[in-house]
Design a protein that fits this description.
Layout (H helix, E strand, L loop, with lengths): L3 H9 L6 H5 L10 H10 L6 H8 L2 E4 L19 E4 L5 E4 L5 E5 L5 E2 L10 H5 L1 H4 L2 E4 L5 E4 L11 H29 L6 H34 L2 H34 L5 H5 L1 H25 L25 H10 L2 H30 L3 H4 L5 H23 L3 H26 L16 H30 L4 H48 L1
Antiparallel strand pairs: 1-2, 3-4, 4-5, 6-7
Helix pairs in contact: 3-18, 7-8, 7-11, 8-9, 8-13, 9-11, 9-13, 9-17, 13-15, 13-17, 15-16, 16-17
């Protein structure tokens, strides 16, 4: 057995590791091995000075509630909820290499416990965490769970959806442009009359609507890919299906308009011989692109989610969530089925509102030639429909994004009342009319489009009202998805910055700390021998 003097010489000659440095370490630590504890408490006890013993007797007791060792070779000698003793007179003590966190003491008889409750489980994968790791979510049982998220990174094939709709829009614009040119030339051959101008104006309006739907569908697709929302993807598919039906109706309606213009002495042989080929081309392009779009949507549907990104972070795959009592409760709430249901209803409501907006304007535009064709409606009614539709959309969107149940309830009430107006106009347009001065039915060429638009508005408004009621009910019960999402995202960002700072400090001190403990073990082995 070595004498105290020899022990002191060994300590002083071991690469600058002094006895004072060893004495400043905790007497019993969860991060040290069993052999180190025995050496520290038995063999090195005689070299402690009386002042150090007094400080050891008055050490501060700190409990670590959650502990996960990073070193696999030390995992057998560690456990949770250990009592760790820290000397209250030390200025700063760091144990970065053992993943416990940063322990600091300000000299005022208090110790700050670990703020990092976990550590990287795979050093190699942690270095490439942007591409190789999954999110680690710690639940109340304090066990790591890997969450497989298939929509973490944008799939390059998602651009196919935009390309399909872009090609469709370009083709439709070109084909409809040829038809508009023919329509303008045909209208120039007509005898000037109010009815002739109204029919020509109506033809231009419906061709513009076909182009507008394709462009609006393209913009909605871009917004869908930006949000990665499954609800908006299905709303986009619904809009495409309604677009196909509208194109079929327009093919039949344009033939009726051509016949009406011939009756008004608007004769153009080119329009009668070449025009139908463009109509059939348009009728073939729209359903074909829709079928391809559905196929790609089914192929890529896993890239979209029904829930908000605060539940399953899409762009935070490399971020490691920290475990604290607050985080545990928030994670428990986020996984609650009630919160999932509220997130689904909110996303569905946002998607339906965007589809409703287009059909409100479509109906208002179709009412614009009412004064020329002697509709039962007036131009003021068309302006009111467009204006009120825009105002309701703005107020409703504000109520949804700010989660104002009373504002959203007001918009829902007005939307429910508008259903009665749509039903009234549906009955009006479905009945034959011979009240025009010319004795012609003013709806002979536009009746099917008006009826179709009103039916779509009635169905969409009813669905939107029902989903809005469910959303308001969730808000009244205190479930605020966007608010919780914002706080969760801020919490993740704060934890990420703390984790990044810790790992940077860990890499700087890991080598020196590891060598210190290894040399300390070697000293203990030599003394035992």
């Amino acid at each position: 057995m070595l004498s105290p003097t020899n022990k002191s010489n060994i300590l002083s000659s071991n690469n600058g590791i002094t006895r004072q440095q060893l004495d400043q370490q905790p007497e019993s630590s969860t991060s040290s091995s069993t052999h180190y504890q025995r050496t520290r408490s038995d063999d090195l006890a005689p070299i402690l000075s009386q002042q150090q013993k007094r400080h050891s007797a008055t050490t501060t007791r700190t409990e670590i509630s959650t502990y996960y060792p990073c070193e696999e070779d030390m995992s057998s000698s560690h456990s949770k909820n250990k009592q760790v003793l820290y000397s209250h007179n030390q200025k700063q003590y760091q144990r970065a290499s053992l993943g416990v966190g940063m322990m600091m003491n300000d000299g005022k008889n208090k110790a700050i416990t670990s703020w990092l409750d976990h550590c990287p489980w795979n050093n190699e994968s942690n270095n490439n965490s942007n591409t190789n790791t999954n999110d680690l979510i710690y639940h109340e049982q304090q066990h790591p769970e890997r969450v497989n998220i298939e929509n973490d990174y944008p799939n390059p094939f998602l651009g196919i959806l935009v390309v399909i709709l872009f090609i469709e829009s370009v083709v439709i614009i070109v084909l409809e442009g040829f038809r508009v040119r023919q329509n303008v030339y045909q209208s120039s051959q007509c005898l000037l009359s109010i009815t002739g101008v109204g029919v020509s104006f109506t033809n231009l309006i419906y061709r513009a609507l076909v182009i507008a739907i394709s462009l609006y569908q393209l913009l909605l697709c871009v917004d869908t890919l930006r949000q990665r929302s499954a609800a908006q993807l299905y709303a986009l598919i619904l809009l495409g299906f309604l677009y196909v039906i509208f194109a079929i109706i327009q093919t039949y309606q344009n033939q009726s308009i051509e016949e009406w213009m011939v009756e008004l002495q608007c004769i153009d042989e080119t329009s009668r011989t070449i025009g139908p080929h463009y109509e059939y081309a348009i009728l073939a392009v729209i359903p074909a692109c829709f079928l391809v779009f559905i196929g790609c949507s089914i192929w890529l549907h896993r890239q979209f989610t029904w829930y908000d990104h605060c539940y399953y972070p899409q762009q935070q795959k490399s971020r490691t969530l920290m475990t604290t009592p607050e985080n545990n409760s928030n994670q428990k709430d986020e996984m609650n089925p009630r919160f999932k249901k509220a997130a689904v209803t909110l996303a569905t409501l946002l998607a339906l509102v965007k589809v409703d907006l287009f059909f409100f304007f479509s109906f208002a535009v179709q009412l614009s030639p009412s004064a020329l064709l002697y509709y039962d409606t007036t131009t003021m009614e068309a302006l009111l429909v467009a204006g009120l539709g825009m105002v309701l959309f703005i107020i409703g969107y504000y109520g949804i994004l700010n989660e104002k149940p009373w504002v959203l309830g007001f918009v829902t009430l007005v939307a429910a009342v508008s259903i009665a107006y749509f039903v009234f106009r549906l009955i009006t347009f479905a009945q034959p009319h011979l009240s025009s001065p010319s004795g012609e039915d003013p709806y002979r060429a536009t009746r099917y489009s008006l009826i179709y638009t009103l039916l779509v508005l009635i169905i969409l408004t009813t669905l939107t009202t029902g989903v809005a009621v469910a959303t308001i009910r969730s808000m009244m019960h205190g479930v605020r998805i966007l608010r919780d999402c914002a706080s969760s995202t801020q919490r993740i960002n704060n934890n990420t910055s703390m984790t990044t700072a810790y790992y940077s400090h860990d890499r700087q001190n890991k080598s020196s700390s590891s060598s210190f403990y290894q040399k300390h073990k070697d000293i203990g082995r030599s003394e035992t021998k």
